[in-house]
Amino acid sequence: MSKSPLAPTDLRIVRQNEAANAPGGAAASAARRASTGASPARRGKRPAASTIGVVVAEATTGLFADPYYSALFRGISTALANQQLLLMLMAPQSARESRATQALLSGRQVDGVIMVGLHIGSPLPALARQLSIPAVLCGRPPREVEISSVDCDNRDGAAAAVEHLLSLGRRRIAVISGNLDVPAAVDRRMGYRDALAGAGIPIDPTMEEVADFYSDRARLAMERLLLNHPELDSVFVASDQMAVAAVEVLTQARKRIPEDVAVIGFDDSPYALATSPALSSIHQPFEETGTEAVALLLREMADPDETPRQIVLKTKLVIRASTVGREVAGEASRQ
Amino acid sequence: MSKSPPGSAARDDPGATAPGVPTRGVPARGQGPTPVRNCVGVVVTDAPEGLLRDPYYSTIFKGISSALAERSLLFLLLAPLSESEQDATRRLLVGTQVDGLILIGLHTDSWLPRLIQRRKIPAVMCGHLPPDFGISGIDCDNFRGSVLAIDHLLSIGRRRIAHISGHHTTPSGLDRLMGYRQALAAAGIPLDPTMEESGDFLVGPARMAMSRLLESHPDLDAVYVASDQMAVAAMEVLAKAGRRIPEDVAVVGFDDSPSAAAASPSLSTINQSIELTGREAVKMLVRHIADPEAAPQRVVLDVELVIRESTSGSARPAAPTP
Q1: Most CB atoms closer than 10 Å: which of A298, A325, B75, B111?
Q2: Over chain B, what is the mean pLDDT?
Q3: Which one of A64, A73, A97 has the shortest CB-CB distance to B61?
Q4: How far, in whole angstroms, is CA B289 from its chain's centroid?
Q5: What is the structure's pLDDT at A143?
Q6: What is the ipTM score, two decimals?
Q7: Comparing C-alpha atoms, which of A105, A119, A127, A8 is closest to residue A52?
């Protein structure tokens, strides 16, 4: 895993001074701004900041509540602090909004772009390449476009989650995955299938439900699974946010967790601590994904002839009471 | 900087497209701005650290972005801090013709108001009423919110009411302070400047403000705090100093952010419909885009007192959040 070239302590000091100097009116805020700009104080002589577009495939309403995105942006904005870079965030949903995003890129108003969670078949990576705009993808890169990317090992992480369930003696393992037009969702389901195959357990499509990374569909998915397979003894849910909904359904159905049904999620986000019992999960290095994406982007902006690089960050199994029970979890809450 | 084409709307000029610029990142010169239709820029000045996690900003963005998404308009967020980021924002907005702009924060730099006027870009100021640069604005009735808060504290028998204020340079901070003073004056309580401390809308300074107030006025029996975030910090200081809330010191905040209901004791506060403010800002902007000749509007949204444990105590059930 490559190290970020930026010194974290330097970045934090600048931010602290800004916050502490917040009061005092126009003079103070002007002084504050001058202290964080590049060296010459005279307007016009200052090197203009570059603009980095951050394009997110998620609906903005979900964006501001989502721990993945807030941690990712924290990583991105920390890495960009002190770099004279302006961040521009957009989250195109409809076709019209996507066209607007493409118009922004085509107008060359953006010096670099970070794309997050794009759906399979999104035209943006190819467009960035065609316009020679330095670009980095957070997620699995499309096969047909050469573009730098930072992803986590979704497939192996999911396999580890299911292997953990297998190691506890579970055999009737269901899965609730995210929407399959996102590579991460596809990869996590593949990891689930890999682990079952490794244990000689045949795939049963009725033990697989597809939701959409949000709570409502996940609730329906868990209900359907219980209906079709009352004998299931565990479930791998492809995000903690969905797992919270699954736990609610199981609790209402009077299933004891983990005694009757063990539950494991994915992300290790604050949602994992919102359930009772707390969720075992697969830790995703969100903030690091953002930091690494910025490092890759800066590299490409400095030298556009660099070949695109793929970085895959490792996930980590985090064991809590939803799989091993409260007593055991008390002894070994993190692995 | 690219030259503006003659006349107002470059966006109606089909010729205003960016040429194939050989140098990446250099804005087109001598050409009009690139029109980007179905796009609304949201420009935030003086953004706090952790903008997307800040309860006020994330809620207002939620309101703005959901209202934009309903109309299939791209939400484009810019939050420049340093001077060079401001320059980059200016370069971007000069080089791009978006459908409209929503401004959040004070925008004391004049380049953006001037650009808005010169290009006649539809614009709405959200969360502040614009001083005068001829654009529409929407805010909540900060002054009245303070009056509601103080009247409530007076109604439960409090008389030694301190205030932890926000920025004195922002209209909201100032209006809330004025409302506090006015409500006390109306009740015949003499003003005491040592009962006011500034928290700058930040948690650290709010904590220090509460400590200072306790030191200089150990007998204070209530505190009105200009934001929930600061109020929760102030309550921690009070608890550490052995004050029971509300028995010894009643507390009222401002915003009705999620942290208010979740606090322990739960926080009485002023609900300012932050999400609705964002949605209404979009509605006003869309109207202006449809009718560029319409006169700028100034909308002040009403606020509401929400009574919870920090003033009513656990004896009385907390009022449900509206």
Answers
A1: B75
A2: 85
A3: A64
A4: 23
A5: 84
A6: 0.70
A7: A105
With beta carbons under 8 A apart, name residues in chain B contacting A89: 76-78
The least confident of A42-56, B96-110, B223-237 is: A42-56
Band of pLDDT at residue B321, cut at 50, 70 and 90:
low
Residues of B in contact with A99 (CB under 8 A): 37-38
3-state helix, strand, coil in chain B (%, to 5): 40, 20, 40
Question: What is the model's pTM?
Answer: 0.75
Quote the tokens at residue B292: 């560029």
How far apart CA B45 and CA B105 sit, in angstroms, is 5
Angstroms from A72 CA to nearest CA on chain B: 11
**Residues ≥6 apart with Cβ < 8 Å to A272:** A240, A243, A265, A278, A279, A280, A281, A318, A320
Greatest Cα pair distance, chain A, in angstroms, is: 72
Residue A117 gets the label, from left (phi > 0), alpha (psi -120 to 50) or beta, of left
- Contact residues, chain B, for A100 at CB < 8 Å: 36-39, 73-74
Which pLDDT score, from 0 to 100, does residue B9 have? 37
A-B interface: how many C-beta pairs under 8 angstroms? 174
CA–CA dist A298, A79 (Å, integer): 10
CATH for A47-152+286-313? 3.40.50.2300
* pLDDT of res. B11: 37
- Neighboring chain B residues of A97 at a CB cutoff of 8 Å: 38-39, 69, 72-74
Q: Cα–Cα distances in Å, from B147 out to A193, B220, B266?
A: 62, 19, 21
What strands lie across the sheet with A262-264, from one edge to the other? A208-210, A173-177, A234-237, A262-264
Question: According to the CATH classification, is domain A154-283+317-331 in 3.40.50.2300?
Answer: yes
Contact A55, B39 (CB under 8 A): no
Residue of B nearest to A26 (CA): B108
Nearest Cβ partner of B92 from A65, A97, A109? A109
For A22, the closest of B58, B78, B202 (CB atoms) is B202
Q: Which two tokens stand for residue B42?
A: 């949201």
Would you state the structure tokens that stand for residue A79, as one six-digit string? 């890495």
Of A7, A14, A54, nearest to A34 by C-alpha is A14
Residue type at A251? T
Give the distance from CA B106 to its chain's centroid.
Answer: 9
pLDDT confidence bin for A138, thresholds 50/70/90: very high
Domains of chain B: 34-140+276-301 (3.40.50.2300), 142-272+305-312 (3.40.50.2300)
| Separation CA A166–CA B8 (nearest Å) | 68
The whole-number pLDDT of residue A46 equals: 57
Q: What are phi and psi of B39, to 5 degrees?
A: -140, 130
Inform me whether the pLDDT recorded for A17 exceeds 50: no
| Pick from A138-147, A178-187, B192-201: least confident | A138-147
Give per-residue pLDDT as tens, A261-279.
999 999 998 889 989 899 9
Which among B17, B81, B91 has CB closest to A48?
Answer: B91
Residues of chain A with CATH 3.40.50.2300: 47-152+286-313, 154-283+317-331
pLDDT at residue A247 in the model: 97
